[in-house]
């Protein structure tokens, strides 16, 4: 929930000024809040919270229904984290990677399944939270903070060695890499979700009956893949920040 609170705070101070179309804002004094992203984000958070409560309200030894679905999702997330971080390191990072995956997954599918545009606003229109660049940048920055924290907590000041290894000449490239990671994460997710919604909207206007259906089904598949790619890369970056510790420890012994 702390991660989602950061996401909301970030949307209150939009640093990425890339916008497509008109948007709906709340003005609270001198604070300008991205209202449409708040509304759809709260909707996604409510779905996740209600699903969690329903799955744990009356747990059964042999799961069924929503409990079975949530346990399958948890097992999938555990396997995802284990594959990226290894057997010894993955457990503390399951909540972070799982929250990233589930929030992006439900957000993406909400854009593909829910007719947000039918809900009228004073200005702008509703869309999936990941349809807004501020949301994807916030998620990417959280991932950056996570792998910096992972590197410092695991390797201490030795984390800085990566910037000058194997030669200090590569220092500018190593620093540039830290900027390109969140940029690629945020723009990949934003671009794919925006493009998918635009394609479906255009096809619905041009051919409103059968042709958009396969495209919508494909959109559901690609939306799920985008959530998987984001969470997988987050795990890979965290592992990359921590790697080398075992080798250094072995050398010390």
TrEMBL record:
NCBIfam families: ATP_synt_6_or_A. InterPro entries: ATP_syn_F0_a_bact/chloroplast (IPR045082), ATP_synth_F0_asu (IPR000568), ATP_synth_F0_asu_AS (IPR023011), F0_ATP_A_sf (IPR035908). This is ATP synthase subunit a. One of its GO terms (molecular function) is proton-transporting ATP synthase activity, rotational mechanism. The chain crosses the membrane at residues 33-55, 93-113, 133-152, 189-211, 217-238. Keywords: ATP synthesis, CF(0), Hydrogen ion transport, Ion transport, Membrane, Thylakoid, Transmembrane, Transmembrane helix, Transport. HAMAP family: ATP_synth_a_bact. It comes from Richelia sinica FACHB-800. It is a multi-pass membrane protein. The keyword Iron-sulfur does not apply. It comes from the Bacteria. It is found in: Cell membrane; Cellular thylakoid membrane; Membrane. GO terms for cellular component: plasma membrane-derived thylakoid membrane; proton-transporting ATP synthase complex. The keyword Ion transport applies. Its main location: membrane. Key component of the proton channel; it plays a direct role in the translocation of protons across the membrane. Pfam families: ATP-synt_A.
């Amino acid at each position: 929930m702390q991660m989602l609170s950061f996401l909301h705070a970030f949307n209150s101070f939009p640093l990425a000024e890339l916008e497509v179309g008109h948007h709906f804002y709340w003005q609270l004094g001198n604070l300008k809040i991205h209202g449409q992203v708040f509304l759809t984000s709260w909707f996604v958070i409510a779905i996740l919270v209600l699903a969690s409560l329903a799955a744990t309200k009356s747990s059964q030894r042999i799961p069924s229904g929503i409990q079975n679905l949530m346990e399958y999702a948890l097992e999938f997330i555990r396997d995802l984290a284990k594959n990226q971080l290894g057997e010894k390191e993955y457990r503390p990072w399951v909540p972070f990677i799982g929250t990233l995956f589930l929030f992006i997954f439900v957000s993406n599918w909400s854009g593909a399944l829910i007719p947000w545009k039918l809900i009228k606003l004073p200005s702008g229109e509703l869309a999936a939270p990941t349809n807004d660049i501020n949301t994807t940048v916030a998620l990417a920055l959280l991932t950056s903070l996570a792998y910096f924290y992972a590197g410092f907590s695991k390797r201490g000041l030795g984390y800085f060695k990566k910037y000058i290894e194997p030669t200090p000449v590569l220092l500018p490239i190593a620093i540039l890499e830290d900027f390109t990671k969140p940029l690629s994460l945020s723009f990949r997710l934003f671009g794919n979700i925006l493009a998918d919604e635009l394609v479906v909207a255009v096809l619905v206007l041009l051919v409103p009956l059968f042709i958009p259906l396969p495209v919508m089904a494909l959109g559901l598949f690609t939306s799920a893949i985008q959530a998987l790619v984001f969470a997988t890369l987050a795990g890979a970056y965290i592992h990359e920040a921590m790697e080398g510790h075992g080798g250094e420890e072995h050398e010390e012994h």
